[in-house]
Amino acid sequence: MLQWKGVMPAVTTKFTANDQLDLDMFEKNIKAQMEAGVHGIILGGTLGEASTLEPDEKEILIKASLAIADGKIPVVMNVAEQSTKDAIAMAQQAEKAGADGLMVLPPMRYRATDFETVTYFKAIANNTSLPIMLYNNPVDYKIEVTLDMLEDLLECSNIQAIKESTRDITNIIRLQNRFGDRVKVFTGVDTLGLESLAIGADGWVAGLVCAFPAETVAIYELVKAGRINEALEIYRWFMPLLELDISPQLVQNIKLAEVATGIGTENVRLPRLPLQGGERQRVLKIIETGLKNRPVLPDYKNLRSNA
């Protein structure tokens, strides 16, 4: 059974220079994530360039990830399709391919009403047996999953978690006050990671973890063990890098960071292009400064958690 907790990277999709899936580099990155102690991986999200992936490529990524994970961590597939029919088909394809769970975005390219959004999510949940994490990000997708909407959605027993990206971390408290342990709450904003965990978030769907897995997991484990000051020291170092996640060019930013740490390439899929000019130099400087001052981590894998 999928345990909705811990650090779950929204992994980047690796491409070769001729725009094919780069499964060798993908495997190198996933192994680095696992070695650092992540608790699961999420494929084909915004950071994974979902909108440019073909259905067969998504299936290849699921199967490759399952082979690498070897049952040690769950593999979660993102669902972000243009129609309800396609979303159901993607969910069923992921289940057939062996995925352990789904992260589901609201309807894309259409600002659905609350009723339409609930109907959409229920249609997907009722057509798969996989456990589901809903993605609540009204800042980027202009659709909010309110507490009342979520209460309606919890009629579906396989809706079990929510990625909370409203930028209002007090919503974590509201969710837990209302639904208790029925809904596992993940923070989805890198620059609110520590704060969200400190007030009780169950996990962190992270972005810069793709390049810095150990530092991200260390923050999670230290917070859950009650060692906030040690976590905060790492987090302060990390913040300029984490801010690379809250940008329209987050894919390019994070892929540049992956290059710097040796677990990725800069290849993106059109219409995206690698960063150019002054912006590229700005991002590189942030990455280089971060690497130069990279903290020495405690033995975070062997902490006694208070969680």
Automatic annotation (TrEMBL):
SUPFAM superfamilies on file: Aldolase
Give the Gene Ontology MF terms in alphabetical order: 4-hydroxy-tetrahydrodipicolinate synthase activity
| Keywords annotated in UniProt | Lyase
Q: Does the keyword Lyase apply?
A: yes
Q: Which residues does the annotation say bind pyruvate? A: 205
Active site annotated at which positions?
135, 163
Offer one Pfam family short name for this entry. DHDPS
The family annotation for this protein states: Belongs to the DapA family.
Indicate what this protein is called per its UniProt record: Dihydrodipicolinate synthase family protein
The source organism is: Flagellimonas alvinocaridis
Biological classification of the source: Bacteria, Pseudomonadati, Bacteroidota, Flavobacteriia, Flavobacteriales
